[in-house]
Structure formats: C-alpha cells, structure tokens
C-alpha cells in the first residue's frame, strides 16, 4: 500500500483562468458583435433611400421583417406568441418607443441639428444600459461594466467626432437616446417569457400600424410605392438589418444581460467606418484607429469578470490519498 498526494491547487487556478469567459458570454458576445456589424454596415445603403419618405420606408421595412420572422417561426415550429394584456402593453411600449418614436425623433431632430450630433449622442447608449440594465434584470450595477462602457463611449466619440448643437435640438437628442435604450431595456421582461425570435417578430409587427399612422401624419411621408431599387434596399434592410440583427441582438441580451450587451454598441460606428473605407467614400485615419482600439478595450474590460477568490492555503494544499 502507498499513498500518492494529488495537489489540486495549481489545477484549480488554471480551471478558473480557463473558464473566466464562459460559453454563454462568448456566444452572446459573438451574437451582439455580428448584429451590430450588420447594422453599422447597412448605413452605406442610406443614400439609396434618400428620395423615399423615411417613415413610409420604416413601415414597409418592419412589415416585411415581421413576416420573415413569422415564416422562420413556422419553419422551426416555434409557436406564434399570444401575449396576455400586460405583455401586449409591454410590446406596444417597446415598439412605440424603440421603433416608432425613435424614427420620428430622428427625423424631427435632424431638422434642428446636424445628424452627426445625434450619432454622437447615441454613443452614450452603452453607459445608459450599464447603469439602467440591472434595474430591469433584477441585478446590481457592475463597476467593471460601467467603466468599460465609459471607455466604449469615449471610443465612439473619437470615431464619430464631438459636435455641438443648438439648445432646441437637445430635447430631441435626449429622447432619441432614451428610445434607443428602451429598445433593449423594455425587451428584458419580455425575453424572460418569450424567445428572442418571438420578441423580434412581435415587436416588428406591432410597430407597423404605429409607423403607418405617423407616416400619414408627417408631411410628405405618405406610404408611396417604392421603385425597384428602393424596394430592393428596403428588402435588404428588412431581412438583414432588422430580422437577423434583432434576433442576434436579443439573443445576446439574453446571454449577457442588457448592461454588458450595451458594450457592443461600440461595434456599430466602427463597422460603418470600415464599410465607408472599403466603398471609397471615406479614408482610414489614425483618429479612427484610436477610437476603434478604445472601443475594443472598453468591451474587453466590461466583459471581464472579477477573479474568483483564492483558495485558503490549507485547502489548496489538501492531499487526496489514492490507494495503489
């Protein structure tokens, strides 16, 4: 008989290091990255709809996206959501703020100020989600996530450029930012009861009548029939920028939480800048590189979990006898 001492201290430390980023974190980060990349890259298609009424275009976009997501539910045999009155109220609030009001404020606000100002204001989204996300998740504010979000916001401002605006544009900008945050925050309770696919499809379809009404009220925003090129662009935006991107984003929110998912808003302006460089409408600059690095550093900081407490020396040195 002999006893072999099996030390578990070094192995445990290695296991803690290997599992610092868990599988849900990695898959959530990938989903949010791809989703925001699609949204950022789609900015290049904006000029193709320059002559088409914005609200009318958004109405067609969300209608088609909702129908696509319904078709996916049917193929995957996912039940179509049948929300109860309270859930329907949340869907209406989500669609009314995160989609309908967001687009209306964008149109009205950019008549008061340069669109670059609103893009810069939107860059504060990660910080808003880092602070408000835990209130909807039932968790607590993570100092590391807030710090990472602040770095991401700084990177976005570097990429977008800091701008000024007249005082009259500020209410629109604040509302614009809150509606963007509401798109994620108001979905959190719904994502606890429905899948990302169900929430994405439902919110798109609920937004359609709201946007259609706004399109009729807004001067020059009638639901006109798009041209062939406009229809193709709207179809791309509906399928990729809406159906796929919404599904990826909400899937990431489920895995990461609203606060950490917000970090990936920094991917969107970088993707837009890369596409602009590839398309030849912009040039890569040291400032853009610095902003991109800041965003990446902020995301890494915000996602990193604190190290687990070290084992007590007597526990780490415990030997487990093995009989041979």
From TrEMBL:
The chain crosses the membrane at residues 26-48, 60-76, 88-105, 117-136, 143-163, 169-190, 197-217, 223-249, 261-280. It comes from the Bacteria. The keyword Transmembrane helix applies. Belongs to the EamA transporter family. InterPro entries: AA-Vitamin_Transporters, EamA_dom, EmrE-like. The keyword Transcription does not apply. Residues 27-159, 172-301 form the EamA domain. Its main location: membrane. It is found in: Membrane. It is a multi-pass membrane protein. One of its GO terms (cellular component) is membrane. Keywords: Membrane, Transmembrane, Transmembrane helix. This is DMT family transporter.
């Amino acid at each position: 008989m002999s006893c072999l001492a099996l030390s578990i201290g070094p192995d445990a430390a290695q296991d803690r290091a290997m599992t610092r980023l868990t599988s849900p974190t990695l898959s959530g980060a990938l989903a949010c990255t791809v989703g925001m990349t699609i949204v950022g890259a789609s900015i290049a298609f904006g000029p193709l709809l320059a002559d088409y009424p914005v609200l009318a275009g958004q109405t067609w976009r969300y209608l088609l996206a909702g129908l696509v997501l319904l078709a996916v539910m049917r193929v995957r045999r996912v039940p179509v959501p049948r929300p109860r009155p309270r859930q329907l109220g949340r869907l209406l609030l989500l669609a009314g703020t995160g989609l309908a009001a967001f687009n209306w404020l964008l149109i009205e606000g950019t008549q008061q100020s340069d669109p670059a100002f609103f893009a810069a204001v939107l860059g504060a989204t990660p910080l808003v989600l880092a602070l408000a996300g835990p209130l909807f998740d039932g968790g607590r504010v993570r100092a590391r996530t807030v710090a990472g979000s602040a770095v991401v916001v700084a990177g976005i401002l570097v990429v977008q450029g800091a701008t000024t605006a007249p005082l009259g544009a500020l209410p629109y900008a604040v509302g614009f930012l809150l509606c963007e945050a509401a798109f994620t925050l108001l979905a959190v309770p719904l994502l606890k009861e429905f899948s990302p696919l169900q929430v994405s499809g439902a919110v798109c379809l609920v937004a359609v009548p709201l946007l259609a009404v706004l399109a009729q009220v807004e001067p020059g925003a009638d639901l006109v029939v798009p041209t062939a090129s406009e229809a193709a662009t709207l179809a791309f935006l509906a399928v990729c920028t809406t159906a796929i991107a919404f599904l990826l984003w909400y899937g990431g929110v489920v895995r990461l939480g609203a606060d950490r998912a917000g970090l990936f808003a920094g991917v969107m302006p970088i993707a837009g800048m890369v596409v602009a460089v590839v398309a030849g409408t912009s040039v890569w600059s040291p400032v853009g590189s610095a902003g991109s690095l800041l965003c990446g550093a902020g995301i890494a900081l915000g996602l990193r979990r604190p190290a687990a407490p070290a084992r007590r020396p007597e526990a780490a040195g415990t030997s487990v006898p093995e009989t041979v």
